[in-house]
Amino acid sequence: MFAVYVHAALLGGSFLVLFPLGVVILRLTSVRMHQIVQLVTLTLCLIGLIFAVIMSARSALFASFNWAHQLMGLVAVLALALQACLGYINHRAFTLTGKPTPARWLHLGLGRILLPFGMLTGAV
Q1: Could you give the number of structural domains in the chain?
Q2: Which in 28, 45, 81, 95 has the greatest CB count within 10 A?
Q3: What is the residue-level pLDDT of the chain in tens, covering all 124 positions?
Q4: Residues whose CB falls within 8 Å of the CB of residue 124, separated by 6 or more in sequence, listed in order
Q5: pTM of the full structure
């Protein structure tokens, strides 16, 4: 039962508090602080995913990995990895050119979809 609470705290806290906080930090402080908060939060999500996979593998009911929460959670965490890559690509290109890149718009758009999707996943 401990693993369920750890999983819920890590992923719920990440999508409900830490990722939104990272967005606010970008507006109030620096890109570097945004990167740190978001990467630490991504790491917490990956740990939460590991807990989820272990719990699912140990449960006869969830081992088939075909429940909506499981599938949505996997999609959300994998999309977070893409989100981090897009953010990195945009940052590197922007520091060289000083101009917004297509990666910026993809990063912003995916973030606007991913935050509510992750929150919704917790409710399913």
Answers
A1: 1
A2: 45
A3: 898 999 999 999 999 999 999 999 999 999 999 999 999 999 999 999 999 999 999 888 888 888 999 999 999 999 999 999 999 999 999 999 999 899 999 999 999 999 999 999 999 8
A4: 68, 69, 72
A5: 0.90
